[in-house]
């Protein structure tokens, strides 16, 4: 039989590390898609459902642009495949890889609260972005980075939307991420 001995010092170090990572990953909404710790509370369901973790979610992205619309749209689907219920809420962190460097999405829309995903159920969020003029010399998008609420590791996906975004002057972002909502 093997025993592991843990000293109080190493436990405190581990707790300090977890606390530091948690504080790093959670912040107030700065308009750049940073998660707010209060927006990611677990949900009561006769017990407490654990928070959804990216390792238990199947994450896919698809182009859901409406022809003739003023903006392009990508929908990201998060399907619980972890074998147990989990809670998800708030906004995912979204970043685009571009030929000009990384681009963060800004939060948009009202968050309606937390949802519990049973095994096999899904939630989605939308990413909207301006369309480049035909023949325009915009910024080429090469990938999509998604970090689910309360996680620190991003999942890299292929970008299914338009190949380029319009080039703009000055700071800020034109890409918006909308809150996560359970698929009915």
Observed structural traits:
14 strands, mainly beta, 6-stranded mixed beta sheet, single chain, disordered N terminus, 184 residues
Percent strand equals 25-35%
Which oligomeric state applies? single chain
Taking the alpha carbons of the first and last residues, their distance comes to 49 Å
Q: How helical, in percent, are the residues?
A: under 10%
Largest sheet: 6 strands, mixed
Number of strands: 14
Low-confidence stretches: 1-46
List the total number of helices. Answer: 1
State mean pLDDT (0 to 100 scale).
Answer: 76
Shape: elongated
Q: Indicate the radius of gyration in whole angstroms.
A: 19 Å
Q: Provide the succession of SSEs.
A: HEEEEEEEEEEEEEE
The SS-based structural class is mainly beta
Describe the structure.
This protein is elongated. A hairpin with a 7-residue loop joins β10 and β11 (155-157). The protein is mainly beta and 184 residues long. The chain starts with 7 loop residues before the first helix and ends with a strand. Strands 2, 3, 7, 9, 13 and 14 form a six-stranded mixed sheet that branches. The chain has one helix at 8-25, and strands at residues 50-51, 57-63, 71-80, 86-88, 93-98, 101-104, 106-107, 115-117, 122-130, 139-147, 155-157, 164-165, 176-177, 181-182. Mean pLDDT is 76; it is low at 1-46. The chain contains one helix and 14 strands; from the N terminus they run αββββββββββββββ.
